[in-house]
Amino acid sequence: MNRLAVLIVLASMVFGALVGFAVPTLGGSVYRSGANIVFTAVQIQPKPATASVARHVSQRMPSWAKVAASGAVAGEAHLGAGEFITAHEISGVQSLRIELHSPNRDGLAERTTAAANTVISVVTRMEFNRVSGVVSEPGGEPENMTRAWAIWAAMLGAVLGALVGWLGCSLRRPGRWVARIADGGSRIEGAEAFAASVDHEIRALWSAVRTRRGLLVIGLGFFAIAGYAATGSVGPPFLALLVAGYAAFRDPRWIAGALLILGASVLPPKLELVKVGPVTPTVLEVAVLIGLVVVWRKPGKSIFMWPLILVTAAVAIGCAHGITSGGEFSEVADAMRALLLVPLGFVIVYRAFAGKLPQLVAVVAIGAAVASAVELLAAVMDWQRLLVDERTSVITGDDTSEVSRLSAPILPLWGPLLILLVSGAFPTRPRWRLLLIALPGLAHEALSFNRSTWAPLLGCVVLVAVARFGSRGLVKRLLAAAALGALGLALASGGALGTTGEALAGRVTSVFSGEALVEDSLADRVRENTAALNTLLAHPVAGSGVGVPYGGEIIWYDEVHDRTVVEARPWIHNQYLRMWLWFGVFGLFAVGLLMVRVASAVVHSWRLRAPGTVLVVALGLGLACMAMQSIFQTTLIDRPSLMAIALTLAMLALAVGWRPRFDQVGQTPSSARRIMTR
After folding, report:
1. C-alpha separations of 570 from 177, 229, 532 in Å
2. How far apart are CA 261 and CA 192, in angstroms?
3. Distance CA 343, CA 645 (A)
4. E-assigned strands of 371-414?
5. Where are the alpha helices (H) located in 209-271, listed in sequence order?
């Protein structure tokens, strides 16, 4: 990056910081004062109070927190212009924290106490005097919240400004990395050539599995998965890994394949081996270690080298900060081992399949279809060890359906894969083969019941369809899809597809009816975000560090001891808040640079008419899909999601420099004896 680009980035960062700092102050200062309310149950019948009566109060606390912030309380409290009340539960002590925000500091503590008494009055009337309340802590000294929010917004503005400036420079005058993008040719012809190459590889794989060596490979995979399913031991997967590791010294694709099977299939990613001090290594981590040894001397710098180095540095800094801030070492170590799967997994897959991208796509697509088919079969046959992270119920609104909610490590990879399958860079003939690959993934996505993953995936698929078929072709396909979808929903809602179909129909319709917006899960995630933001207001630059609680809580009822239990919540669904908490603003900037490089690669591939442009755009949208899902899912600590990111990044890095090998297209499939050695 030249001096002018550095100046542009710095100027953008300063401008973003100033704008961010100014926005919270535009409306003047806002002050906050808080008071605590304790509620108790009123025993109507003349007998000693029981724990169940107290439990009624605990169960109603979330509702009362909403009442406190409602218009009914605001009207009775006679709030002035610009004043509002927020409330949250103080877990485990049957208390509410009432906070009055006001632009007027004078008399705010007294008005907060009066607002707390108003909340008590409204709640007791709504509960027909079955509860009583008292202000246990009157309004405190007013705090000026504008300054804290201004500093927080300035940090966010600085990061966003620097990233926008970097993106502008990267699009206008990119660095030397752009030389790795293949230029010239036709995008359409390149997509057709790539699809033909993938078709060639699929046929080669089909020929290979019918030979002695191919049957040996299939048997090895079956031994690893079936052996674990039957015994629950890490022995079969570990033995299969050792065989793959031995073969990898002749061809590193073997260890890359083993890495994908262990990290993104149906096996639990945390198959632990022997405990070594405070850390217990997993089979997946042994595969990563073998993979690094195998590919260490292989050449291959990628367009994502420096962004991934910065991400790795952010992880190291965040972990060091977490340990010095009191984070538990085992939690910090586990988070670091999970996060390093992205850069290390990327290096292994990228170097192992350098120059063999069509083969990688063919292997991943067929492997994903087989893995999801096995997962669906495991759900039918009740093979519990292969039902990784399965849940036995689905809550939609006030309805709880006792059905299997499938997850499995292969699921995060289906977002980018389904986008790729409809992009035109994947063979669509014969149709039955495409359906055979796509249908297990579609069924798996549906049975995950994850609405927060459906919407981004559907949006990205529509974008690809618009680019491929045009508006007229898209309308025809959308009409056909809408008709089939309406028919399917009608059949499912009527019970024709069983209880699972009914639950799935209710899940889909809840998005359009607005029922999803009033569920407890959404309110729970709002509480997570609020706790995280309160922590970031106190630590806007460095964050809290990896493994340090951010203020979120888990509340559950202990039936045995008849008491409410409150524990620190180790996860948060909004992964961008987690990045800020763990890695500070530097981590946000590092991850943002990786996103900027992805966007730049897509734009420059389009401009240069790279042969792999369609593939690059599809994979870029796949990463964008996972980025949008990260607002609602715990992807930053989910090893399968991290493996899916590493794999998609590796395919994208290979795609930008891919050139068709027309001499191979249309030939007879390669000799089966050369499987994974060609």
Report:
1. 39, 29, 12
2. 29
3. 10
4. 394-396, 399-401
5. 212-231, 235-248, 253-263
Q: Which two tokens stand for residue 534?
A: 């309160």
Give me the pLDDT at residue 57, please. Answer: 76
Q: How far apart are CA 336 and CA 338, in angstroms?
A: 5
In contact, 361 and 200? CB cutoff 8 Å: no
- Are the C-beta atoms of residues 361 and 198 closer than 8 Å to each other? yes
Contact criterion met (CB below 8 Å) for 543 and 581:
yes
d(CA 406, CA 380): 11
**Spatial separation of the C-alpha atoms in residues 348 and 252, rounded to whole Å:** 8
CATH of domain 31-146: 3.30.70
Question: What's the angle, vertex CA 317, arms to CA 311 and CA 320, rounded to 5?
Answer: 140
So what's the pLDDT on residue 672?
35
| Residue carrying structure tokens 């994208």 | 652
Give 584-602 pLDDT, tens digit per residue.
999 999 999 999 999 999 9
DSSP at 425: S
Give the DSSP H or E segment for 39. Answer: strand 31-41
No. of H helices and E strands in the chain? 22, 9
- CA 442, chain centre distance (Å): 18
What is the pLDDT at residue 91? 66
C-alpha radius of gyration, the chain, whole number: 28
pLDDT attached to residue 515: 65
Measured between alpha carbons, how far is 395 from 407 in angstroms, rounded to an integer? 16
- DSSP letters, 3-36, are HHHHHHHHHHHHHHHHHHHHGGGTT---EEEEEE
CA atoms within a 13 Å half-sphere pointing along the CA-CB vector of 632 = 14
Residues of the chain with confidence (pLDDT) below 50? 50-51, 663-678
Cα separation, 469 vs 477, whole angstroms = 9
Domain ranges of the chain: 31-146, 174-210+299-657
What is the model's pLDDT at position 398? 61
Q: What is the pLDDT of residues 119-170, one digit of tens each?
A: 999 888 888 777 888 998 999 989 888 888 999 999 999 999 999 999 999 9
CA-CA-CA-CA torsion sign (511, 620, 445, 471): positive
> Which letter does DSSP use for residue 249 in this model?
T
The pLDDT, as a whole number, for residue 203 is 92
Phi-psi group of 498: left, alpha or beta (phi > 0 → left; psi -120 to 50 → alpha; rest → beta): left
Helix runs in 77-186, H state only = 108-126, 145-172
Rounded to 10 degrees, the C-alpha dihedral 634/638/643/645 comes to 10
Residue 567 bridge partners (DSSP): 554
**How many whole angstroms separate alpha carbon 182 and alpha carbon 500?**
48
Contact 543, 322 (CB under 8 A): no
Residues 108, 62: Cα–Cα separation, whole Å:
25
Tokens of 199: 């078709």
37's tokens: 């309310």
